[in-house]
Write a structure and sequence with these properties.
The structure is a homotetramer of 191-residue chains. The first copy, chain A, contains 10 helices and no strands. Chain A has 191 residues and is mainly alpha-helical. In chain A, helix 3 packs parallel to helix 9, helix 5 packs antiparallel against helix 6 and helix 8 runs antiparallel to helix 9. The longest helix of chain A is centred in the middle third of the chain and has 29 residues. Chains A and B meet through helix 1, helix 4, helix 5 and helix 6 of A and helix 1, helix 3 and helix 10 of B.
Chain lengths: 191, 191, 191, 191
């Protein structure tokens, strides 16, 4: 089975999610500075979620590039990942609309945690299908960032009810950690 | 005629439908648990419809993979299928918004029934174009799931007015039945 | 220059337009039959516009399939066509929302007329680039449906202010006329 | 790394942005001429933004066509460009909704300025990766339009608070300047 449509479909979904999030930036009915200032929290959560979706697209790109074949299990693992990503615009809007209230901040972390776990499952399904001696299995052998992110999300979720800004700080930290593209795969493939 | 654009276009439409459904999860203006709880029925119908669209994408993937050529009739059979799928976000939103009222539940079944029939028509058009001795004709020779689903939908639609949860149960049952990817085609192609 | 991205971009835009039109089918807050009945005119215009966009996608598919090369002029002629098509959801919603009032009905025709003219311009730009001895130039030699549609639209627009249903009838007529895929190109290419 | 997915993803995002902008053309609840007239400023900004996004798509097409390889830096430079373009529907709606008030007009220029700078960064990243002796480096050697546009935007932004129509005039001027596709690359590649 070819991976072309899997990539095209995922590209489509992520592209739409990114642009649909912008719709939460509701056009104000007045043209003054105050109207713009009211949008600042929504804008900030938009930037954060844009970076997260950009990271997912980027890593997805690297991961699928390394895969040579796909099977039914991989198709569903991918749809499962896209399901959690599809909830990102909702939690982004909810967090922005309510000025980083504890509950929306925690739910934001929950959705990102599930998305992270779904990515790990997809990664595992792809490695399993390529075989233990494949390039990708070797490249991903010591995956630290994935489980570490999951751990950090699990920390950030309850902390949202203590001090909401701690959770936000953790989310930003995770984003920064991932902003560096996955050198492991890239170098192995090219080398 | 190449099938590339047919696949790309269908991928695009299904990807957008999936993400547009999320827009029915309206961002609440308050950040408490009650606001979230009010969204539970909308969320549940979203999950169900996401699974259905995922199944269609998956099977469409397998079906088109098996097709070698397309013609004008196949293009229109495909557009016909996409038409019924395009109504899924509407019926999903309607069913979720009205807490599984009888009429929206029945209309949900009607749209899925027509989508199922449209899929059978597309399948037939593809088989006819590849010829009776093609791999796909052999693979689909004893299609049971398709007609069985149609029958179950036809049952679920009137039952929505008797006990609404029976219809929901049938929808979930059909989804579970299809969650297994179409092994027939997959094995024949690869074998 | 390759035509791949031109096709992919057009597929994307048309796929999104089709699905965005569905958003005009606003989810009613009640689950009874009356709520559904109020949506009938919006639904009917949706079906009509879906068929029109399907026709454009289909013919665009045939036209680009016949093109071997594209240039800057073709890219812009294509963007010009997509511009008019992008207004279809708006006029569809306007006509449906106002139960086929004269003005929305006329504006619907104006947008479709401009889209039709834009298609003729694109066709001309493609033929010019492939050369007068190309297959496509021969296949399109006696294009009757294009100019005839333009003429019919030009008739339907003022007639909307006389009897609105005459214009609707003309729109349906044009759609039926085009539902047959462009056999000229198809047969020439395959023959 | 292949550039296919980068192109497909960018096509998807730009296609969606173009069509999402149309949603700002809210369907009026009455079918008379006054309702249509009220939409004129929104429509005009839509046309302007459509042309800008069309220009970006066109030039992006040329630029990526000239690129042979991509790396992680290019992926992120591209996502950065798409981020600024993703704000175009918002500023378009804001400017149109408020009849070209000074602040929305200035913010429109700011977003386009950042998009222009992001394009220059992407261009630089691509040239750096192809090497100084590549065709694209030679073709882009004397890029005048890019920096000139940035300068004009920087002028238009403060001028919006003096005479708003001067800024609009500058935006239209920049659009016209770019409407001509980038002959430099096109001729070098083909020659």
């Amino acid at each position: 089975m070819t991976k072309g449509r899997l990539e095209a479909f995922s590209d489509g979904v992520i592209a739409i999610l990114i642009t649909i999030m912008v719709l939460e930036l509701k056009v104000p009915h007045s043209g003054d500075l105050q109207a713009l200032r009211a949008l600042v929290p929504v804008f900030l959560t938009y930037v954060l979620s844009y970076v997260f979706l950009g990271i997912y697209w980027n890593n997805h790109h690297h991961l699928l590039h390394a895969a040579e074949r796909v099977n039914g299990k991989i198709l569903w693992a991918n749809l499962h990942l896209l399901f959690w990503l599809s909830l990102v615009p909702f939690v982004t809007g909810w967090m922005g609309e309510n000025h980083f209230d504890p509950l929306p901040t925690a739910v934001y972390g929950i959705v990102l945690l599930f998305a992270g776990v779904a990515y790990l499952i997809l990664q595992k399904a792809i490695v399993a299908h390529q075989g233990p001696t494949s390039k990708i299995a070797a490249a991903l052998g010591n995956d630290v960032k994935g489980p570490l992110s999951a751990l950090l999300y699990a920390l950030a979720i309850p902390l949202a009810f203590v001090r909401e800004w701690i959770s936000d700080g953790i989310y930003v930290l995770i984003a920064l950690m991932w902003l560096v593209p996955d050198k492991r795969i890239e170098s192995r493939i090219e080398g």
